[in-house]
Amino acid sequence: MANVMIVDDAMIVRKHLTTMLQNEGHTVVAEASHGLQAYCNYERYRPDVVTMDVNMPGMNGLETIEKIIKDFPDARIVVVSAFGTKTVILDALQRGAKNYILKPISQEKVAQAVKEALAAECEQ
Asked: What averages of pLDDT result for each successive group of 10 residues across the chain (124 residues)?
């Protein structure tokens, strides 16, 4: 199972994702409510997978993805957002996200996205 960091500015979403991930046997090693905190926590904890919101105060999710991938090219990031235009989804994937799931989320969607992110790690 994976060590996961959850990045979302809404505490209720972080708690919901924590429950879902723990139900799947994963360990949530860190949380962050904005991009800079996410970057610092990634550097400190080096989680196997990160779930990342797009719309956050300060450094948004897309900028955070780019910054993490630049310094940690093996990072596995799954975007979890209510904001999902084709342009934003493609931008997130081009910046290095491994998957993009839209809110509202289900345990099945989250579990599948994390599984795929972990599988991508094995393929490199």
From this structure: 97 97 97 98 98 95 98 97 90 96 93 92 53
How far is the C-alpha of 6 from the C-alpha of 18, rounded, in Å? Answer: 8
Residues 6+ apart with CB under 8 A from 74: 121, 124
pTM: 0.94
d(CA 44, CA 28): 14
- Token pair of 25 as six digits: 């046997």
Radius of gyration, CA atoms only, the chain: 13
- Do the beta carbons of residue 36 and residue 68 sit within 8 Å? no
Using a 10 angstrom Cβ sphere, with 0-12 exposed, 13-18 middle and 19 or more buried, the burial of residue 10 is: middle
Amino acid (one-letter) located at 107: Q
CB 50 within 8 Å of CB 25: no
How many separate helices (H) and strands (E) can be counted in the chain?
Answer: 5, 5
